């Protein structure tokens, strides 16, 4: 039996929360507490865009097909009572600076993680998941195409990558300050140049997108030094199968979100996890 609890709104970054009671109260649990407060920071991924049942931002969506909803259902099946707070908004980027850059390119980004999501994470959160960088990488790539790199596009791109790394540390710090008891689990990026949506790009464009994705990914991986757990998508071959993507070649489909849940769920329920690889063949496809 599922119960739903709708919380009052708190401005732009307000979220409704669904409370899912355990479907099998007698089953064993992977963590010591039977109560989980799960806050998700993300963009369109967090609402399951591209799946057969995407959610409306901030809405209670217990039957959604995204990884956030799937993780919560798995926790409930393991005997937990789970409260979900989904802060994901399509198009969101990591920082105010990246949001400004995106909107200079007419990308219509309304939200960034640092200002509009992290400050609204529930203070009693026990789990916070983050998936960052996809929209940022595409913004940087679009800016380079628009000439933002000038005569030295490599240096300009590396400056954006360095800023992203610093901003990821800022995000993790903000989450820890807001919800000091939360376990922070971050899914890193795949090599975006190897995804179906980039198939029509020139080799040079793919090389640039690869440079950006791998560079941003290093910034994600560095958050392990700040106490976050990073789950490795970049070096998982399953992340590059065309069968896990929706028709746009960028957003996951139902199978893709199941893969996200398969990767993230163990890290949200166990203190023993692996670490992301520093190098693998998927980082240098082009």
Q: Would you spell out the secondary-structure blueprint of this structure?
A:
Blueprint: E1 3-5, E2 17-20, E3 35-41, H1 67-77, E4 81-86, H2 96-104, H3 113-116, E5 127-131, H4 134-145, H5 153-178, E6 183-187, H6 203-221, E7 229-231, H7 254-269
Parallel strand pairs: 3-4, 3-5, 5-6, 6-7
Antiparallel strand pairs: 1-2, 2-4
Structure in words:
- The longest helix has 26 residues, at 153-178.
- The chain has helices at 67-77, 96-104, 113-116, 134-145, 153-178, 203-221, 254-269; strands spanning 3-5, 17-20, 35-41, 81-86, 127-131, 183-187, 229-231.
- The chain has a seven-stranded mixed beta sheet, sandwiched between helices.
- Mean pLDDT is 90; it is low at 1-15 and 21-31.
- It has 286 residues and is an alpha/beta fold.
- Helix 1 crosses helix 7 (254-269), helix 4 (134-145) crosses helix 6 and helix 5 runs parallel beside helix 6 (203-221).
- It has a single domain (3-281), classed as Rossmann fold (3-Layer(aba) Sandwich), CATH 3.40.50.
- Strand 3, helix 1 (67-77) and strand 4 (81-86) form a beta-alpha-beta unit.
- The chain is globular and about 55 Å long.
- It has seven helices and seven strands.
- The chain starts with a strand and ends in a 17-residue tail after the last helix.
């Amino acid at each position: 039996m599922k119960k739903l609890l709708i919380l009052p709104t708190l401005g732009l970054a307000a979220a409704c929360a669904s409370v899912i009671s355990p479907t099998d109260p007698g089953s064993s649990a992977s963590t010591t507490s039977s109560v989980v407060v799960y806050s998700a920071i993300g963009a369109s991924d967090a609402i399951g865009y591209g799946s057969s049942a995407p959610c409306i931002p901030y809405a209670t969506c217990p039957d959604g097909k995204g990884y956030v909803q799937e993780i919560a259902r798995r926790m409930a099946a393991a005997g937990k009572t789970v409260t979900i707070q989904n802060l994901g908004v399509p198009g969101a980027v990591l920082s105010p600076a990246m949001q400004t850059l995106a909107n200079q390119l007419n990308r219509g980004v309304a939200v960034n993680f640092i200002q509009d999501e992290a400050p609204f994470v529930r203070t009693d959160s026990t789990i916070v998941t983050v998936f960052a960088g996809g929209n940022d990488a595409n913004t940087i790539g679009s800016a380079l195409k628009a000439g933002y790199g000038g005569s030295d596009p490599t240096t300009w791109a590396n400056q954006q990558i360095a800023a992203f790394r610093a901003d990821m540390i800022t995000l993790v710090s903000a989450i820890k300050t807001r919800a000091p008891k939360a376990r922070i689990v971050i899914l890193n990026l795949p090599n975006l140049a190897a995804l179906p949506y980039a198939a029509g790009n020139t080799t040079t464009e793919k090389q640039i997108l690869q440079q950006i994705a791998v560079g941003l990914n290093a910034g994600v991986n560095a958050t392990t030094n700040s106490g976050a757990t990073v789950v490795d998508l970049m070096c998982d071959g399953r992340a590059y199968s065309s069968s896990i993507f929706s028709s746009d070649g960028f957003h996951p489909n139902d199978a893709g979100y199941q893969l996200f849940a398969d990767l993230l769920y163990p890290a949200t329920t166990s203190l023993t996890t692996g670490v992301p690889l520093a190098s693998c063949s998927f980082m240098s496809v082009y």
